[in-house]
Amino acid sequence: MNGVIMDEQENIEIVKRFYAAIGQGDMVTAKELLADFVEWQSPVTRTDHVGITWYRPRIGRDDVLGFFKELSQNAIIEPFEDLKFIVQNDRVVVEGRNRGSALATGRFYEHSWVMIFVLRNGKIMEQRHYYDTADIEPAFLRE
Which domain holds residue 99? Predict the structure, then answer.
């Protein structure tokens, strides 16, 4: 039992390190925390979004880093707030919220979200980011 708890805590720490690396622009560390064949989707949606160009699924480390590059070319993202971590075995669920602004329009957005990470052998294997795209899309739409 103690080993499972330790592994769960390690998984939370890996996700926290990933957030810290992304927040500091440290893509080398971020890449090291991703599995070679990582699956990433942010946001999870089946609907096309005119203003949210980065919404497609990503496969592999370089594709995930491309997601962050595309995101940074479109938005200024303020630090995440009120992070709450829930873990069970290899899954880490994070609830949070943040604000940002669209570079093309200068408009602000704010939204709450949930991210689910799956980890194996100390690496992030999957990430799914759930949020209501209606909370942010208007900030990115040009009139």
Answer: 2-140
* Token pair in block for residue 16: 């926290």
Number of folded domains that form the chain: 1
pLDDT reading at 5 higher than 80: no
Tell me which H or E stretch contains 95. strand 91-102
pLDDT for the residue 125: 97
**What CA–CA distance (Å, rounded) separates 128 from 130?**
6
**Segment 15-73, tens digit of pLDDT:** 999 999 999 999 999 999 999 999 999 877 766 666 777 778 999 999 999 999 999 99
Q: Sort strands 34-41 and 123-131 into parallel, antiparallel or unpaired.
A: parallel
Give the torsion sign (CA, 99, 117, 26, 140): negative
Burial class (CB in 10 A: 0-12, 13-18, 19+), 70: middle
The CATH number covering residue 135 comes to: 3.10.450.50
Supply 74's token pair.
């479109």
Token pair 């940002």 in the structure block, residue: 100
